Amino acid sequence: MNFDERLIRVKWIFLLLLLAVPLRLFALQFGWRQQLNTDPHNSRLAEKVALRGRVLDRGGQLLAFSRGSRRVYPQAALASHWTGFYSLDRGVAGVERWKNELLRERREEDGVTSRPGHDLRLSLEMPRQRRLDRTFPGDQGGALLVDLDRGQVLAAISKPDFQPSRVGVDWRGWQNDPKAPLLNRPFLGLFPAGPLADAWPWGQLPARPVSLMDWSLPQPVRGQLLISPAQVAYSVLKSGSALPLSQLYSDHFLGWRKPASLAPLQKCAQGWQWSGVGRLDKQVVSWAIALRPPYLVVLVVENSDRQDIALKAAWQSLPTP
Predict the structure, then answer these.
(1) Alpha carbon distance 213, 207 (integer Å)
(2) Between β-strands 70-72 and 152-159, what pairing exists: parallel, antiparallel or unpaired?
(3) CA 229: distance to chain centroid?
(4) Which pick of 29, 102, 164, 239 has the fewest CB atoms within 10 Å?
(5) Which of 149-158, 223-232, 252-261 is predicted most confidently?
(6) Cβ neighbour number for residue 29 with a 10 Å cutoff
(7) Which residues fall within 8 angstroms of residue 289, CB to CB, at 6 or more apart?
C-alpha cells in the first residue's frame, strides 16, 4: 500500500469518527429521549420556581410561596427554621429540602410539559409559634411545643434565627457567625444533658426518625451526654404513646397514655416539670420541661444557669387550659 492509499484510508477513518458523534447524539435524542427528559442532571430541566408548591401552617397560613422567579416567606425569621430556604445559588434547606420532590414542579414524560408542585401543610400553628418565641428567655437556644395526643410539633423556635429571603445577601455572614443562626437547635443541636442524662433510656432512641428530625443518637463527650430538645420530647412521647414525632399536618389522633412513672419529672400544681443545668467545658445551658397533658414544652437556653427562669418560660409557653 503506497502513501496515497494510506492517506485516503486515514481520511476515511477520521470522517467516520466525525460522523459517529452526531449519530450518537441522534441516537440519544430519540432512543433515550424519556430518560434524558427526566434526568435531574439535565440543565434544560431547571425548575420553574413559579410552579413550586406552597408551604402552609396547620391553619392554612402561608409560610412559603412563589412570586414569579422568587420564593417568598411571609412569616420571615419567625418560621425560618421550619421553612428553611430555596436558592438557586445556595441550594435548599429545611422543609424546602426535606420535601423538595413534593414541592417542585411536576414534569410530564416529555420533559417539557409541567404542572404545579404539590402544596404542603405542616403541623406548625403560627399563634403558638409567636407565643413560644415571645416567652423564650434568651437570644440563644431552642424550644418546642408538642401535642402528645397527635405526636405533632405545634411550635419550635431556634435562636438566633435568620431571614430566608436574604440567603443570597447574608450567606457568608451566617457561615462565619459563631452563634450559627442556620443550626436548627431544637432538632439538630446537641447540648450537655447534665442531670437529665439518666432520666430516660436514651439508647432506645432511633437514629433517623421518619420526619424532619434527622438527628443522631445521644453522644457521650468527656463523660457528658449530649442530647437535643427533640430527643427529650420524643422520649416523653414514647413513654406513653406509640406515635412518632412529626412536623407534618395529620388528623391522626391517639390519646397519650400517661405512664405510671414520669421520673424525673416532678408533680406540681400545674402538671409535671423538671429543670436542670448542663455543663461541658465552658458551655453552660439551662434545661426546662413543662408537661400539662396533652401539651409538652422542652426548652434549652444557652449561656445561662438560671433554670428557674427557663422553667417559668416553659410554663408560660404552654397553651392555657
Answers:
(1) 10
(2) unpaired
(3) 14
(4) 29
(5) 149-158
(6) 10
(7) 232, 236, 265, 272, 273, 274, 275, 296, 297, 298, 299, 314
pLDDT of residue 208: 46
What is the C-alpha to C-alpha distance for residues 145 and 152, in angstroms, rounded to an integer? Answer: 9
pLDDT surpassing 70 at residue 171: yes
Q: How far apart are CA 292 and CA 321, in angstroms?
A: 9
Residues paired with residue 66 on neighbouring β-strands, in sequence order: 71
Q: Where are the alpha helices (DSSP H) in 3-147?
A: 3-31, 33-38, 80-83, 95-98, 100-103, 126-135
The helix or strand, by DSSP H or E, that contains position 234, with its residue range, turns out to be helix 229-240
Helix (H) or strand (E) holding 315: helix 307-317
**How far is residue 285's CA from residue 148's CA, in Å, rounded to a whole number?**
25
Evaluate whether 314 touches 299 at the Cβ level (below 8 Å): yes
The full DSSP string for 166-177 is GHHHHHHHHHH-
Q: What confidence category does residue 244 fall into, taking pLDDT thresholds of 50, 70 and 90?
A: confident
| pLDDT reported for residue 218 | 66
C-alpha cell at position 46: 431547571
Q: Structural domains in the chain?
A: 47-121 (3.90.1310.10), 126-162+179-317 (3.40.710.10)
| pTM given for the model | 0.81
Helices 126-135, 307-317: inter-axial angle, 10-degree rounding = 160
More confident residue, 38 or 183: 183
Conformational region of residue 174, where left means phi above 0, alpha means psi within -120 to 50, and beta covers everything else: alpha
